[in-house]
Amino acid sequence: MTDQRKLFGTDGIRGRANVHPMTPEMALRLGRAVALVARERGRKSPRILIGKDTRRSGYMLEPALVAGITAMGGRALLSGPIPTPAIANLTHSMRADAGVVISASHNPFGDNGIKLFGPDGFKLPDEEELELERLMESDAPSHGPTGAAIGSAYRMEDAGGRYIVHTKGTFPADLRLDGLRVVVDAAHGAAYKVAPAVFAELGADVIALGVHPNGQNINRDCGALHPQHVQKEVIRRKAQLGIALDGDADRVILVDETGAIVDGDAVMALCATRMLKEKRLKKNTLVATVMSNIGLERAVEAAGGKLLRTAVGDRYVVEAMRKHKLTLGGEQSGHLIFLDHATTGDGCVAALQILAIMAREGRHMSELSRVMERSPQVLESILLPKRMPLAAMDLLNAGIARAEKRLSKHGRILVRWSGTEPKLRIMAEGPDEKVLRQMVAELSALARKDAARKDPTRPA
Fold it and tell me: What's 123's DSSP letter?
């Protein structure tokens, strides 16, 4: 079935703030639609949680969402800046009808986005997002409740505290972080208050970075996208671990005590092999995307497990985990899902699972991360004028065929469009990095030629 969604992408609605679709008008319509769906399910006065990151445009979109929800008789519960996984958790634990997060995650501050969670704390499936779009377009209903039936809004003063308690609860009760020094970079984003508190309350000596948001500095030269600051601080302060979160704290990049990056693949390899040894990995299966390094697959297989790959996007990882009743999955980029603890990626939860292994085994992260041997991988993202069907990019496809023939069974080529931007991602994996760089450069040039000689709006 062809995806007919126009607004929603792989991770909600996202774009330049105050430019369609990220406008107050759209947010108002979305708020009405979310409340209407809840009312149609029998909730006379649905409760809907709203969280956000620290972007200035959140002040513009939040009131519009509230207006739409209350216009349909709903009750909006406002948490203020809080991680995306906190809203997922609170939506379920408070038995709310939906959760809304205003955030563009790792994007620059000038962008914003809206993610939705259902009553179970999971992101909405494609068909439910499509139904919301239809409601937004139809202007249904023609009028909402009046008088005392109009909805209301409340500020949740304890949302952050609830999340801290929940997150600490994912750490083994018999362990403490006493004696461990960690650097935590919250990217001036949604976790700027809660993330340092989580680790400090478990006993760690915390050096906090990226905890002074001003509405414009979220993700700017900090956090998971720019972990070099954490690397420098880990070395300077002789810390045992660096934790770099993104703007909404649903993903994490770690840094070992030597200053080396530990990405999502290495974290998954470490956790999966330990869980296999302890017979805690359900069906002996880890879920990751097509972007994950072949070294991860080999490490899991060597430990007696198997890797199930999905399309890129943490929502597709979660869908596969739920379908096959699995508990561990994630992405190389740092979206890590421990379904026993969270319904979506959670950077703080993931970091705590690694810290638990470090504390229990008394070993440095640099030693633990050697659990997998990484195969060279080269990735380039190129911005093109507009999207066009990959099947219509003749020059690029011919180049891919030549590259795949050259790599044979020793490597692979992966080309895909970004889920949120008109960027083409070109990845090559194989034994020789120099050869891979040449291949990616050639394929990028061919993609640009295809875009220049074809009308990107013409059907394939």
Answer: B
Q: Are residues 222 and 176 in the same domain?
A: yes
Identify the active-site residue in 105, 333, 369, 375.
Answer: 105
Check whether residue 280 and residue 245 sit in a common domain. no
Instruction: Give the model's confidence band at 459: pLDDT under 50 very low, under 70 low, under 90 confident, else very high.
Output: very low
What does the alpha-carbon distance between residue 428 and residue 451 come to, in Å, rounded to a whole number?
A: 21
Secondary structure (3-state) at 282: helix
Decide which of 213, 231, 258 is a domain's last residue: 258
Q: Give the C-alpha separation, 227 to 104, whole Å.
A: 19
Indicate whether 145 belongs to any domain: yes
CB atoms within 10 A of CB 314: 24
The single-letter DSSP state of residue 376 is P
Query: Rounded to whole angstroms, how far apart are CA atoms 436 and 269?
Result: 24
Q: Kind and range of the H or E element at 265?
A: helix 264-277
CA distance 220 to 217: 5
Domains of the chain: total: 4
430 and 415 in a common domain: yes
pLDDT digits (tens, 9 = 90+) for 411-449: 999 999 987 678 999 999 999 999 999 999 999 999 999
- Model confidence pLDDT, tens digit, residues 150-174: 999 999 999 999 999 999 999 999 9
Question: Does residue 91 sit within a domain?
Answer: yes
265, 296 Cβ separation under 8 angstroms: yes
In a domain, 69, yes or no: yes
Domain that holds residue 75: 13-157
Q: Are 220 and 111 in contact (CB under 8 A)?
A: no
Task: Please list, in sequence order, all residues whose beta carbon lies within 8 angstroms of the beta carbon of residue 228, skipping any fewer than 6 positions away.
Answer: none
Helix/strand/coil for 285 = strand
Domain boundary residue among 157, 183, 212? 157
Contacts of 85 (CB under 8 A, 6+ apart): 163, 249, 250, 342, 343, 344, 345, 346, 347, 348, 349
| 105 tagged catalytic | yes
- Residue 330 covered by a domain: yes
Q: What is the pTM of this model?
A: 0.90
**Phi and psi dihedrals of 253, rounded to 5?**
-120, 130
